[in-house]
Amino acid sequence: MSTPLSKVRAADPRKPSQQDVAKAVGVSRPHYSKIEAGTANASPRVAAKIKEFLHHAISENEILYPERYQDKVVSE
Questions:
Q1: Which of 3, 33, 49, 74 could disulfide-link to 66, CB 3.0 to 4.6 Å?
Q2: Which pLDDT tens digits describe the chain residue by residue (76 residues)?
Q3: How many CB atoms lie within 10 A of CB 48?
Q4: How many angstroms separate the most distant Cα atoms in the chain?
Q5: HSE-up (13 A, CA, CB side) for residue 60
Q6: How far apart are CA 18 and CA 30, in angstroms?
Q7: CATH 3.30.420.40 given to domain 4-68
Q8: 7 to each of 52, 73, how far by Cα in Å?
Q9: What pTM does this model have?
Q10: What ranges do the domains of the chain cover?
């Protein structure tokens, strides 16, 4: 499933890897990968940190409830 989070990270001009984001927000890369894929849930604390890392290009709700925002278009 392509989630808003995966689209926003891919559009980030810094081109951060999953490892970069995971390290910055304090979770393992495998766990972050699952959050990005929509197969694991982020805690509200982690969602806030991801939003901050991605310079508010995504909302906490889009991270916490990706199924509600699958059709979001991300501009590069």
A1: 3
A2: 688 999 999 999 999 999 999 999 999 999 999 999 999 999 999 999 999 999 999 999 999 998 888 776 555 5
A3: 15
A4: 28
A5: 8
A6: 9
A7: no
A8: 16, 8
A9: 0.88
A10: 4-68
Q: Which residues of 1-21 are buried (b: 16+ CB within 10 A; e: fewer)?
A: eebbbbbbbeebeeebebebb
> Measured between alpha carbons, how far is 41 from 64 in angstroms, rounded to an integer?
6
31, burial (CB in 10 Å: exposed 0-12, middle 13-18, buried 19+): middle
Distance (Å, rounded) from C-alpha 53 to C-alpha 48?
Answer: 9
| Nearest Cα to Cα of residue 63 among 5, 2, 1, 7 | 5
